Amino acid sequence: MFISILFPLYALGQNQLSQDQVLEDYTVFKEIITTGHPSLYEYTSKPEWDSIFGTFEQKGIQEVRTSNDLFKSITSIADKAKDGHLIIHQRKMDTIPPLFPLLLKIIDGKLYTDTDDFKIPIGSEITSINGMSSQTILKDLLKYAPSDGFNLTKKYRQIEKEFGILYFYEYGTKANYSVKLTTPNGGTKTVEIASKSFENIGNRYPKRNSHFALYHQDTNQLDYFKKRIAEKWPFVYYLDSIKTTVLTVNSFGLDPKGFKSRLIEIFKEIKKKKAVNLIIDIRQNIGGYRINAINLYSFLTDEPFKQRISESAITNVLPHEENVIHTLSDYSEFFEMYFASAKKESGKWILTEDHAQAEMIPYKKPFKGKVYVLIGGNTFSAASAFALSAKNDQNITLAGEETGGGYYFHTAQYSALYELPHSKIMVRMPFVKIDKYVLDHSVPKGSGILPDIELILTVKDL
Predict the structure, then answer these.
(1) Is the same domain home to 280 and 380?
(2) Is residue 39 helix, strand or coil?
(3) Are 106 and 138 in contact (CB under 8 A)?
(4) FRET pair for 209, CA 20 to 30 Å: which of 137, 219, 358, 440?
């Protein structure tokens, strides 16, 4: 039931590749990112990229024998772009073998059990798996979770959700796992655990203690998960004793017309409740349509606002179009329309006119009370754009952890899904760099949107 929430539906393929096939697939990938990626050199300089490519071409490529070897290599290379929208997908397969079964939470860079399955107490620290330390495993898995800049929050949140499949990508399939752990009372032991099916792991996902069903006095964890975690449409609940409304927005990837209609009804309801505080929870919101983020913020402000200072692209032609398997529109048509008023400078087209600027006006009756926004590592793309609008607003307080979406810029707007010809590895590539409107320029480059009040989950909380 919950497989699509856990992982993308791609799995490991071990088809053999010749050296010529490896070279052709790698060359397509390299040419796509070097001719099309709009911020390739923001975090990694051209000499550094030349060294990365050169090292792989001279040494690494000789060790690639299968599509999975190439997937690991390309994923590692793509990670150097530090772009959460540049995503490498495994080739498609019909079946997935059994996986490492524990559902884990990363706290302070360590792995802890998030359920009491297999007679392991919740909050037990996993110190090693099959003799390999958890720190080494985490380090090896980081490349599979792209994020904007240097922050680890998005990487950790993704690894938590996809630990079983990512462990499989890195180390292969195992029938059993020897897990060394430290229990909450300080005892140490080693437990032998059999691998479990993809479906078994997905069906246990709602039992995660970090969803806090029991804290909210709901003993039906599955029902709570559906209502609070998996629900995409905005919903509210009320803390009447402190005149507070909690508005949860788990996605901006919804029909904009329906989304705005829902917001209008919600804010009418909030007004009737005479709430003086509003908490907006976007910790699970990975983004979607930008207009939905704009419309939500319009209910919180009484002034016109701004989100972007420029957008840019480095090509007006889609590279390797013959390998593209999906886009939302023809790139040439998109470029001709979207960048019609752009100026070409230093090999790139720069647009300083925000096409959505006219939409950034306050709703006729915005909320007048105190606003708090809850953010986290899963807060990404359009959700990070909303968080930044809130960050620029002196009347709104952000609480939680650093977002996965970048503070100063990110790439998006137009993306193409490529399939490499022999390995069938898929590459999702964005083509537009978006420079954001920010007020605080002291934030280190490579950061996400930082909370005003940092709230980090502790082992005791778990």
Answers:
(1) yes
(2) coil
(3) yes
(4) 137
Residue 404 gets which letter from DSSP? S
| Confidence class for position 14, pLDDT limits 50, 70, 90 | low
Q: Pick from 130, 144, 412: which is nearest to 290 by CA? A: 412
Given pLDDT bands bounded at 50, 70 and 90, which one contains residue 95? confident
Q: Which of 146, 179, 205 is the last residue of a domain?
A: 205
HEC per residue, 276-341:
CEEEEECCCCCCECHHHHHHHHHCCCCCCCCCEEEEEECCCCCCCHHHEEEECCCHHHHHHHHCCC
- What is the rounded CA–CA span in Å between residue 56 and residue 218? 52
Question: Cα–Cα distance between 85 and 73 in angstroms, integer?
Answer: 18
Asked if 270 and 386 sit in the same domain, the reply is yes
Please report which confidence band the pLDDT of residue 5 belongs to, taking 50, 70 and 90 as the band edges.
very low
Which residues span the domain enclosing 250? 209-323+336-414+432-454
pTM, entire model: 0.94
Q: Are residues 266 and 396 in the same domain?
A: yes
Does residue 1 have a pLDDT over 80? no
**Mean of pLDDT over the chain:** 95
Is the same domain home to 174 and 217? Answer: no
Task: Supply the pLDDT for residue 329.
Answer: 93
The domain spanning residue 112 has which CATH number? 2.30.42.10
pLDDT at 94 > cutoff 90: no
Number of structural domains found in the chain: 3
Residues 297 and 374 in one domain: yes
